[in-house]
Amino acid sequence: MDKFVAGMGMIRLLSGCLEIAAALIMLRLNQVEKALVVNTGLAMVGPLVLLATTTIGLVGMADKLSWDKLIWIGCGVACLMFGILKK
């Protein structure tokens, strides 16, 4: 198995486990205010997971891509992050 794919998969598995744990915590707390606090924490984790998996994937493909393509991909990721984090 490719180590980059394994790393990306592990991060996504951990993220999924975190999502399930947060859902269980929300159900256990059974209060909208507290559930919103938990949900806000997840909203901060999502973009970090996106960045981490994208970075690992790009590092794995770096030798196959030209600098031009890497710059375009970086611009695309920056636009995504700007759209996600823009308040």
UniProtKB/TrEMBL annotation:
Xref: InterPro entries: Uncharacterised_YqhV (IPR020390)
UniProt keywords, alphabetically:
Membrane, Transmembrane, Transmembrane helix
Please list every transmembrane segment annotated in the UniProt record, as residue ranges: 6-29, 36-58, 70-85
One Pfam family name is DUF2619
Q: What is this protein called?
A: YqhV family protein
Species assigned in the record: Paenibacillus enshidis
